[in-house]
Design goal:
globular; about 180 residues; Aminopeptidase
């Protein structure tokens, strides 16, 4: 893949993203409702599209997304994923980084999330953005009673953090629309 784009989710993305959500999270007890969150004024929903070559021409296909809810000074990452074939190419980092940048722009001060205890890859990614473990929700996931690790980023408006965030985004291979 040469590049990918990140843009706000649109209605044409709903169907494919709901399918991707099931593929990325086959054990998830409740799938993401993209149409519900897209039109919420307190939500940020981005989709990453990769350039795919087809016999007819080039097309863009959704390969990842992030879905965030915010109220006042606090926000929660509700759902985030990148399809297996596109992991490790900076798409997840770009989705998280761009989302955090836009949350900071609306004066959000902290971000939190839950992540499966077994999902070490996601936990490492979140940690690279400064998220810290703040607790555990025992037996949180209804499909297998796995614990959820609570993580938070309490200093989103910190000037040093914003500088780190800008520097991180400048190194990533995405185009934002």
């Amino acid at each position: 893949m040469k590049y990918f784009t990140i843009k706000p989710i649109s209605t044409e993305d709903f169907l494919i993203l709901e399918q991707l959500d099931r593929e990325i999270f086959p054990l998830k007890s409740q799938q993401t409702l993209f149409s519900k969150n897209t039109y919420n004024e307190n939500a940020i929903c981005y989709v990453a599209h990769a350039l795919l070559n087809t016999e007819a021409n080039c097309s863009r296909s959704p390969v990842g997304y992030i879905n965030v809810s915010f109220t006042g000074l606090e926000s929660e990452i509700l759902s985030f994923g990148v399809t297996k074939n596109y992991r490790g190419q900076g798409i997840g980092k770009s989705l998280i980084g761009l989302t955090l940048k836009n949350l900071a722009a609306v004066n959000c001060k902290s971000v939190f999330l839950e992540v499966r205890k077994s999902n070490q890859t996601a936990r490492t990614l979140y940690s690279s953005f400064g998220f810290k473990k703040t607790g555990v929700r025992s037996n949180y996931y209804s499909d297998n009673q796995e614990d959820a690790i609570l993580m938070s980023l309490p200093h989103l408006q910190n000037i040093e953090y914003l500088s780190f965030l800008q520097s991180t985004l400048q190194k990533l291979p995405y185009y934002s629309k």
